[in-house]
């Protein structure tokens, strides 16, 4: 069953806040870029409540990272590492500046298109944030690459953010764990089930 969460005020440019962990209340600079859509604070709070039992020590991949809020929130809450992937050079540079200012050393930024990044040598991740720009409709293609190319640990968790009412076609091995609605956004957490 889907739960409803108030999306709160959307922030296209300015600052957003880390809401939990060692970096709690730290502010991230958000560049004014077309299509940049940071995950709403209340959605992040709900997601990381779901992830609380498995976040500590997790190896994470933040595809289409944008502001990097999801990956930085994961690091703040005890993730071992986060690989950020962001195709827009200005957004990637802003993300690097935020990591440097917050003295976060367990995050690395690749300024490259997500599909191209996934063509590289894979490393299995415990948690993947899959939140591409809605207009590009990349969910199915990126999910297929993640599943088939060795980027997911055996029982990896995958967070997917998509437009309300548009459930992307995802690998059959990804089992829906929880989902919610916030304004015009659907957010969902899946767990990989090998052999299904």
Instruction: Count structural domains.
Output: 1
Oligomer: single chain
How would you spell out the order of helices and strands? EEEHEHEHEHEHEEE
Judging from the principal axes of the Cα atoms, what is the shape? globular
Q: Helix proportion of residues, in percent?
A: 10-25%
The total count of helices amounts to 5
Radius of gyration: 15 Å
Structural features, described:
This protein has one domain (3-192): Vaccinia Virus protein VP39 (Rossmann fold), CATH 3.40.50. Mean pLDDT is 91; it is low at 1-12. An 8-stranded mixed β-sheet has the order 1-9-10-8-7-4-5-6, sandwiched between helices. A two-stranded antiparallel sheet has the order 2-3. The protein has 5 helices and 10 strands; from the N terminus they run βββαβαβαβαβαβββ. The longest helix has 13 residues, at 89-101. The protein has helices spanning 41-51, 69-76, 89-101, 114-117, 139-148, and strands spanning 3-4, 14-17, 27-30, 59-63, 81-85, 107-110, 125-130, 152-163, 174-182, 185-192. By secondary structure, the protein is α/β, with parallel strands linked by helices.
Q: What's the layout of helices and strands?
A:
Blueprint: E1 3-4, E2 14-17, E3 27-30, H1 41-51, E4 59-63, H2 69-76, E5 81-85, H3 89-101, E6 107-110, H4 114-117, E7 125-130, H5 139-148, E8 152-163, E9 174-182, E10 185-192
Parallel strand pairs: 1-9, 4-5, 4-7, 5-6, 7-8
Antiparallel strand pairs: 2-3, 8-10, 9-10
